Amino acid sequence: MLVLAGGLSYERDVSLRSGRRVLDALLGAGFEAELRDADVTLLPTLTADPPDAAFIALHGSPGEDGSLQSVLDLAGVPYVGSTPHAARLAWDKPTAKTILREAGIPTPDWVTLPQTTFSELGAQSLLDHVVRRLGLPLMIKPAHGGSGLGVQRVTSADALPAAMVGAFAYAPTALMERFVPGIDVAVSVVDLGDGPQALPAVEIVPPDGNYDFAARYTAGITTWHCPARLPEKVLDEAARIAVATHTALGLRDLSRIDLIVGPDGDIQVLEANVAPGMTETSLLPMAVEAAGRKLGAVLERLVSAATARG
After folding, report:
1. In the chain, how many H helices and how many E strands?
2. What is the DSSP letter of 275?
């Protein structure tokens, strides 16, 4: 059994932390497992000594964009997680949002523009039109990636150019999304053999309302509540929407769906993650514990299902 972590993305350090926790949980569940980086030695190793299965704990590319999944498929190694096609759909935020809209799943209005378009057509003119279309505040995000990298809330038009530069530092395309005030909630979805099921929702309370990289991974900065402090009716709807998102995107085994719950209880999907974090401050392990399960037992079921597919 291999746990794949590391890689060369901006999220390498977080990925290694996730990988080590997954490894510890699998060893505790009785697996023979080892942690491997995703580097040039991986494919020859998979070919010479193929493992029974792999667990992908890489965040960012190639762990979430379908690339590593394609490599494992080529090597004939079964793995926990979504197929390459589904991973690519979820990885590209504008594509995922389009699929959700077509499925009737609510997600905030958005505009997507590549950096080249700003250069060719004039950044200020385009930004003026975006503000007229979506209003302010706006959430500016890289079209790909996670961990809050390059994400910024913009409350004035003057701050937009700098926010766009920040997003372009992590991806060649930026997503400009209408800001929706409310409570940040994450719902993890796992399929332990009876179809995808939602785990208890995690309410996220960062100190200044900005759930950025530091707020996600620095212990003691952010407060989490699991289950979320929301009415039962809202929690049920959040679970339904999370499972519907997982299904609409064709995801498999596990995912984390990030939601925003508005003041009136309306819920909108922000994004889906195919390789949820597994660190000591990550949300899926919190939800597993709140559901009265052990992380090792959940991972054991997922790995067993992957092995059976192989």
Report:
1. 12, 14
2. S
Active site amino acids: 11, 147, 217, 256, 258, 271, 273, 277
Decide if pLDDT at 217 tops 70: no
The pLDDT value recorded for residue 214 is 65
Give 265's contacts (C-beta < 8 A, 6+ positions apart): 231, 233, 234, 237
Q: What residue numbers does the annotated binding site cover?
A: 258, 271, 273
C-alpha distances in angstroms, 101 versus 54, 95, 256, 268? Answer: 33, 10, 18, 11
Mean pLDDT of 80-93: 97
Q: In which element (H, E) is residue 30 found?
A: none
Cα–Cα distance measured from residue 150 to residue 169, given in angstroms and rounded to the nearest whole number: 7
Q: Which runs of E-coded beta strand occur in 138-246?
A: 138-142, 152-154, 173-178, 183-191, 196-198, 202-205, 223-225
3-state class of 120 per DSSP?
Answer: helix
pTM score, two decimals?
0.94
How far apart CA 171 and CA 146 sit, in angstroms, is 11
Task: Name the nearest CA neighbour of 58 among 142, 2, 140.
Answer: 2
Binding site for Mg(2+): what residues are annotated? 258, 271, 273
Closest CA relative to residue 17, chosen from 218, 168, 176, 201? 218
- The per-residue pLDDT for range 233-280, each reduced to its tens digit, is 999 999 999 999 999 999 999 999 999 999 999 999 999 999 999 998
